[in-house]
Amino acid sequence: MPQNRYFIIYKPFGILSQFSGEANTLKEVGDFPSDVYPVGRLDKDSEGLLLITNDKALNHQLLNPSFAHQRTYLAQVEGIPTVEAIGQLEKGVDINVDGKMYHTKKAKAQLLAIEPTLPERNPPIRYRKSVPDSWIELNLIEGKNRQVRKMTAAVGFPTLRLVRYAMENLSIEGFEVGEVREMDRTTLLSLLKIV
Q1: Which of 30, 51, 84, 120 is deepest in the core (most CB within 10 A)?
Q2: 192 backbone φψ class: left, alpha, beta (φ>0; ψ -120 to 50)
Q3: Residues 6 or more apart from 147 whose CB is under 8 A from it?
Q4: What is the CA radius of gyration of the chain?
Q5: Which residues are catalytic?
Q6: pLDDT tens for the chain, residues 1 to 195
Q7: Domains of the chain, with CATH numbers?
Q8: CA-to-CA distance for 51 and 131, rounded, in angstroms?
Q9: Helix (H, G, I), strand (E, B) or coil at 91
Q10: 4 alpha carbon, distance to own chain's centre
Q11: Where in the numbering of this chain does the Pseudouridine synthase RsuA/RluA-like domain appear (predicted)?
C-alpha cells in the first residue's frame, strides 16, 4: 500500500488547481508523485495555500461541509471598506452560488492597518492612482466557489488580489510563490487541529 504524502504549496497566480491539461497546471510548480491531487481548489486568478496529498480520508474530511475548519484569506480590495461593510462581511452576505442565492455563514473580517508581507504577484495588479486600495483579512469556515470575491463585491469593494493564507494553523508564512514543502502527517494534522 502506498504511503500517504503531504505537500504544502504556495500556488502562483495564473496556475490551475489541477494536474491535467497542457499548460498552467500544478505540473509547472513541482515534480509531484503521480497519485496525489489538490484538496479543494484555488481559482486560476487566486494564489496561496494549497494542500496536495494522496490521503483520501483527509481529503474527504477537509471537504466535508460539516467539518468547519477555518480558512484565512488576505484580499486586496478596491477602495477602503467602511466599518459597515466589514460588519456586513462578518454577519454574512447574499451571494449567487450555482444560480441560487446563498447567505454566507458568519465570518471574521478586519481591515488591515498595514499591507501584509507577501511575495510580489506576477503580474502585479493594475494600479490606478485615482482609486485607493486596501487589504482585509477574512476568516471563513466554508468555501463556496469564488466566495471571497463574491462577498467583497456584494459589499461594494471588489477584490483585486486574493491569497489564501492559512487553514487553521497551517500557513504559507515565509513561503515564496511556487514554493513546495513536504510535511509529515502528525505535524500537518496538528496544524489543521484534527485529532
Answers
A1: 51
A2: alpha
A3: 95, 104, 140
A4: 17
A5: 43
A6: 669 999 999 999 999 999 988 789 999 998 999 999 999 889 999 999 999 999 998 988 888 777 778 999 999 999 999 999 999 999 999 999 999 999 999 999 999 999 999 999 888 888 777 889 999 999 998 888 899 999 999 999 999 999 999 999 999 999 999 999 999 999 999 999 987
A7: 6-65+169-191 (3.30.70.580), 71-167 (3.30.70.1560)
A8: 35
A9: helix
A10: 23
A11: 6-154
Copy the grid coordinates of residue 195: 485529532
Tell me, yes or no, if the pTM score tops 0.85: yes
User: Grid coordinates standing for 63?
Assistant: 471537504
Please give the Cα distance from 163 to 48 (Å, whole number).
Answer: 5
Neighbouring C-beta atoms of residue 35, cutoff 10 Å: 10
Q: CA-to-CA distance for 124 and 139, rounded, in angstroms?
A: 24
Q: With H, G, I as helix, E, B as strand and everything else as coil, classify residue 24.
A: coil
Q: Which three cell numbers stand for residue 111?
A: 481591515
Q: What is the DSSP letter of 148?
A: H
Nearest to 37 by CA among 65, 12, 64, 9: 9
Cis status of the peptide bond prior to 33, with omega within 30 of 0 = no
For helices 83-91 and 147-154, the axis angle rounded to 10 degrees is 140
